[in-house]
Amino acid sequence: MKNKFYITTPIYYVNDQPHIGHAYTTVIADVLARYYRQKLGDDNVYFLTGTDEHGVKVAESAAKQKITPQKFTDNISQQFKDAWQKLDIKYNDFIRTTEDRHQKIVVNILNQLKQTKTPQGNDVLYEADYQGLYCVGCEKFITEAELVDGQCPDHKRKPEKLVEKNWFFRLGDFLPAIKKAIEADQLIIYPPGRKKEVLGLINKQNMPDFSISRPVKSVAWGIDLPWDKEQKVYVWVDALSNYITALGYPDKELYQKFWPADIQLLALDILKFHALYWPAILMVLDIPLPKGLYIHGFFKINGQKMSKSLGNVVSPNDLVKQYGSEVTKYLILSQFSFGSESDIKINDFPAKYNADLVNGLGNLINRLTNMIEQYLDGDIGLTKKDLEKSLNISKFLSNINQEIEELNFKLALLKIWNIISTVNEEIDKNKPWELAKNNDQQKLKKLLQDWTKYLYNIAVSLQPFMPQTAEHILKILTAKQIKKPVKPLFPRIN
Ligand code: ME8
Fold first, then answer.
1. What is the pLDDT of residues 406-434, one digit of tens each?
2. What residue stretches are annotated with the Methionyl/Leucyl tRNA synthetase domain (predicted)?
3. Strand partners for 96
4. Residue 217 in domain
5. Does some domain include residue 472?
6. Which residues are tagged catalytic?
């Protein structure tokens, strides 16, 4: 029986402002964290997010703005925090890779990598020259085959030719063990298509070793390599380690309690690093692998990847301004099934809002509370206990919970909205206003009670997704006197 839940998002690069892609991952993590807090208790859930603050691109952007990289990262990191606050994201910790607490542990981890041998008895780390094409936009080396018209397809810029000394991580020696762990679902990679892709990658290619450091002259903004002052740590050891440095690896209580992570969320762009580099690092440290990597789809805008360099970024702040945090989360999560790649259709949001929130949930709340106020003087005749007893009416909640645990958020919401529609239809069909006219009090009260129980269940099922809305509805339904809300929860927009 699982009694703790540790969930992580990637730590986002500070060279980009928070956009709806980052928001999607973070909202999913928030929904799951809220769900498991209810199930396991607040103390048994840990939700980590943060920002990835080193690298060439950060130094470049800071120089452009004529500020120090630290100042630059302070600004953008704060923008991520602000965006999450506006979206009502309740994380337990926000780690920044420029923090001392992170850097100190990364240095320990590097020293461990340096001292350890691979299963085949080789040094894990070795020095060599690296030659290749490097895209500063991606912060990674890129192959000829990946170029389109001589440019990085994502950043529309020409890669640089690089020859330099790097320290390398001998990845190849770990691949057999990683393959075994993935095949046995000891490290789950979900959805199954992504697992297949990773296994294909291990089987097919001669996976190159990866750089863990680059010369100071190429990467000025980073953690010093402890044994070679001419080198700075290069992204992945620094970035991936955040998942354990934030917990205080190796000896802090949080680490003991929460590692291994239950769910690590990410998109396809960084799957290779999480599915191959990360397990290899953990194997050197001789600590358990995460239980699962969960790969969601990539939002595209008109078929193109969203990125600052392409100028097609959708900001979650704008959506929150227009719809509020609750509805924004609903609109984002109800668009895609987890794992599917699709175009985001921001233009459909107003119609969806009016249909689902205004005419659906909002209408149900208004008419039901209005009738209870009008016909029963606000006294529905159900105690809080009665309502609690009605929980899981027709297995509704357990059904939704199962969908959440399987990361089928779109389906969970669809099922909740099906019930909302059904109750709205039942009201139309049973015409309670006629029962009131004919003085059929008994039948009227029974119907209103049934619908109240359903609305109560709907509110509870919404808690992980729309916590404020859920709380608001529960407050209305458990008040001494049920009253129609003075202001509608979801005003119509034109
Ligand atoms: O890769 N659609 O940071 P990053 C959906 N710092 N999700 C998206 C998205 C989109 N268009 N764009 C970004 C990095 N994401 C590294 C990670 S982790 C140790 C280091 C989300 O700012 C998605 O989760 O590029 C993706 O994997 C992540 O942001 C990449 O964020």
1. 999 999 999 999 999 999 999 999 999 99
2. 6-156, 157-368
3. 51
4. no
5. yes
6. 19, 22, 135, 138, 152, 155, 305, 308
